[in-house]
## 1
Amino acid sequence: MTIEILQALQSAGVPAGAKALSEATDASQATVGRVLRRMEEDGLIEPVSNKGRKLTPEGLRRLREHSASDVKRRLARDLVNISFDGDKERLIEVMRIREMLEPGCAAVAALRATQEELTVLENYAFGHRYLLFQGKAANREDLNFHLSIAAVSQNQTLSKILELLLTDNNAYVEFSRAGEAERDAQVTAHFEILDAIRSRDGDRARKAMCAHLKHVIEDVRRVYHIAEDRGGAPGVEPGCGAAPEDGASPS
């Protein structure tokens, strides 16, 4: 109820008492009174003589934080709605978004990866290769390899977007499954990306990731019989992500 009262005070634009706030929040005056006392103690509101209460700077800050969280939640819900929903053709849409995100991540990872982070990437790459050549599923290792590269880029928002795209309805399983017949190519691609990151060659890492994702798209089309589209995402060259400038994290 704290947020509701803060919003009601902001909407009123003038100090308001328990009765007015009770009507605005559809709660009893007794309940509103208890919440108001707690909010005063927390420094979110302050009394104005006998006119009621008004927001403090701290109360306004709390409202702004809540609004920002609301926006993030809405964006997350929207992203879920466009991510993989079981429709195989939707996999191509997800891949086009990956093309915009992951090449830049790989380039930045080449500049920022610590030795410890490189070791983690190596472990996933070797684990992926081992399982594939044992004839076993390596979905999780494939996923973790890509998510770890995004994490190394230190862009938390981008990492979360990528994680959501790949894990929603287990889309990453579909991508790995599509490439099972091309396991040598999968393994080679991961090690080419890894070698470029290890060599601190951002441009080569970006190009290696572009080539890998392009190959995944081809596998998805072939396995699930999806027709070619015309150029992928609007304004984005298929198979290529923008190179980061001056070592900056991709935005």
## 2
Amino acid sequence: WSYDWQDLLGYWRDHERLMAHWKAVLPVGRVLEVSYEDLVGDLEAVSRQIVAHCNLEWDNGCLDFHTSPRPVRTASVTQVREPIYSRSIGRWKPFARQLTPIFGEFEGDREVADASL
């Protein structure tokens, strides 16, 4: 699916429809949306917001997740073993020309359209 932008766009739209459904059927405030840029910008504040939203007690280990000795059996194993980083932010910009057709599909979505600037 990652080789065809129309498939990728379909997955994005499916995600948007699913999130709209849950926002419509669940009580207001039940769904917490977190921006990756916000998380990277202030890991502790956003992490505390997530933990509080889940009605859990804060644990400083939330900030040191990358030092946990527990086994990781996912494709993201190398990412889990390092602190949050910002180097992914804006990595799409060198491909802006190739992404133009996708951004054009989001004309009605201000958040996505703004990200393409």
## 3
Amino acid sequence: MPEPDSDTILQAIRQGQSLAGWDLRHGDFSGRDLQNADFAGALLDSARFDGAILDGANFRGALLQETVFLQASLKNAKFSLARAALARFDEADLAGADLADADFTGAVFIKAKLAGAVLNRTVLAEARLDHADCAGVRVDGTDLRKAVLENGIWREAAGEYADLSGAWLDRADFSGANLPRLSLYGASAARSLWRQALLVNSRAGERANFAGADFSEADLSDSSWQDVDCPGGLFVHGVLTRMRLAQSDCGGADLSRVRARRADFSGGVFRKAKLVRADLFEATWSGCAIGGADFSEANCYAAQFLGAKADAGTIFRGANLKKAQFAFGNGRAS
């Protein structure tokens, strides 16, 4: 249909008319009150909605490439199945919005509010979500590969199979998140917060960086992390049961009182790590560098330290070493 003029568009919106199929590309709706407007299926590429009020608006299946929503109010808006690559939502309020099954590749949500939004199966690859408030979002199968989430709030986010491979998560807060089977290959998450998060069966590798990250009381059971960097990380009171944390750098990390039964730390670096009162029942430390590590009062029952590299500063004072196997590569433990 021909491109409608602004009066025709606004009249259609006021009358609750569907704009499906309307060609609204490059239109300027900035500052307009468009609450509950029905833009489902509309062509809106490169349109502008700066500062517009769009609470409850319907953009389901709309074409929104490079569309701009700077500081717009989009509370409870619907974007499912929309195609919004490179769209901009800087400082927009999308609290409670539905973005499920939509494509936001490369979109920008800097300082946006997405608390309680639904992001199930949403494509947010290479998107910018730094400083965004995403507390309580749903992320089942969400694609966040190479996205920027630095300093973002993701507390109590929930969903299985979210993919954060190659993403930037430095200083992001995932405390209390429920994210089983999360993928973190090659991610940068220095000083990020994961306190009391549920991360069972998560996967990480390719030198993912968790330097100084806080996993206190988090559950990492059955996770497979290999070749990752966790120097100075905090795992106090965490659950690492059957976790594979092999060939990783955990120098100076605090694993005091962790439950790491049958965990595999083979080939890792744990120099000066704290494992005081840790439960390391049948854990594997083969080939690990444990110089200066403190295993005081730890449960090392039937643990394996074959080929581990200890030194005079390695401490096992008061540890349960019954049936533990030792064959240190150099030095002696005290």
## 4
Amino acid sequence: MSLGPRGEPRKARIARNEALFREVNERVEEMTAASASDGIDFVCECGDPECTSSVPLTRAEYERVRSDPVLFAIVPGHEILDVEDVVARDERFYLVRKHVDEQDVARGLDPRS
């Protein structure tokens, strides 16, 4: 098991990073709720804490992602296959599902739970 600088297991740290980006996107969604535009640039929810990429999603796509606390929307190519599986591919984004071992972290940090 590889540990990060604070002794946290790598896979748990990645799951926490993704959950943090999800929390940011919840705020983005709230701030754009009154907008007439259906397309919104959300923050990539990948596990890289340095990522600053955006993921263009419609409101319906975003709600699909949020319907399951172990799903995350990422920029294609940002998947980390030892902690998640790509479950849907679109030219604009990939939808990834956390592996079983990381799902508890994702569920525990879900702002909608």
